[in-house]
Each structure stands twice: as C-alpha cells, then as structure tokens.
Automatic annotation (TrEMBL):
Taxonomic source organism: Streptomyces tateyamensis
GO molecular function annotations of the record: protein-N-terminal-alanine acetyltransferase activity
Database matches in SUPFAM superfamilies: Acyl-CoA N-acyltransferases (Nat) (SSF55729)
Domain of life per record: Bacteria
Protein name, per record: GNAT family N-acetyltransferase
C-alpha cells in the first residue's frame, strides 16, 4: 500500500458527532474559531441538504478497513470573481494529521466534483498562515493563483491563498 487507505462517504445524519469533534479551537484556529452548538446544527443540516439542493457535496473521511471517521471534506457552490465555481474545504482530526489522509481525501472529492460536470473550476482558500492546508492544495494538484481577502465564516475576512484546480482537465 502506498499510503493510508482513505475513502470518502457522503454526509449522513450520524455525522453530527464528527462535526462536533472538528469544532474545537485547535481545528478552527484558521477560520474564526469554534461555532456555537446552534451553528453546528445548522451546518449539519446544510451538509445533509447539499446534494438535494444541488449546492455541492459533503463527505466524511474514513480511514482503514474499519472505516474510522477521521475528518470531513466537501465542496459547495459559490460565486467567485464573477464565475460559478466549487469551493472545497477539509478538516482532519489532529491524531490523523500529517499522514497523507487529507491529500487522498482531496483526490477523491476532486474526482466527485469532476464527475458532476457542473463547474469548470474548484477553488480552495486556506489562510496564508496555514502551511498544512496550503501544502495539501499543492500536493492535490491545485495551482496557486494569488493571495486574496476571503470571507469565511460570513462576516469575517481573512487573508487567504486562492488555489484553483481545472475540473475540465484530464486527470
């Protein structure tokens, strides 16, 4: 085996516990800090509705043959610089970081977004102060376009890198 056995599974109601596990000060350091329980519940409902509403898709990241939930990854529609694109984001729980799990999950999520043939581009906007997420973008085949001011969560702007992947290109 060349790396960890990683799979992604579309978001289900039982993933609320995982969402709460990633809602910590350490995990949310680069995106404005933890959310309230009310915000987590609203986010969970949005994730459950992504596919039905055509907004994107959220996944649990599963590791190994036991399929332990070790993180989240997903993409959602947004308007960026006048173009409808997908935006991707991920969280991998601290005990599982640094093992190639996020890169493998990103490859699977990119394949999912590409198979939809809905948008031409997939963007990621990690904070310029988040070297791990920026490295994941590079390793997953994204191209760095520029630094930008990016609003996430709503009402909070952060300095981010705009990474882009062409979904129409042959992998």
């Amino acid at each position: 085996m060349n790396g960890p056995e990683v799979r992604i599974r579309p978001w289900v109601d039982g993933d609320l516990a995982l969402l709460r596990r990633v809602n910590t000060p350490v995990m949310k350091k680069h995106v404005g800090g933890p959310e309230t329980d009310e915000q987590v519940l609203a986010r969970h409902q949005r994730y459950l509705n992504f596919v039905a509403t055509g907004a994107g898709c959220m996944f649990s990241i599963l590791l190994g043959t036991e399929r332990e939930a070790v993180g989240t990854i997903g993409y959602a529609e947004r308007l960026w610089n006048g173009e409808r694109v997908y935006e991707i984001g991920w969280n991998v729980l601290p005990p599982f970081q640094g093992r190639g799990i996020a890169v493998a999950a990103a490859a699977a999520a990119v394949a999912s977004a590409r198979s939809e043939r809905k948008h031409s581009h997939l963007h990621a906007f990690p904070s310029v102060d988040n070297p791990a997420s920026n490295a994941i973008c590079r390793k997953a085949g994204f191209s760095l376009l520029a630094e930008c001011d990016f609003e996430f969560p709503p009402g909070r702007f952060m300095r981010s890198n705009d990474w882009c992947l062409d979904l129409t290109a042959t992998p």
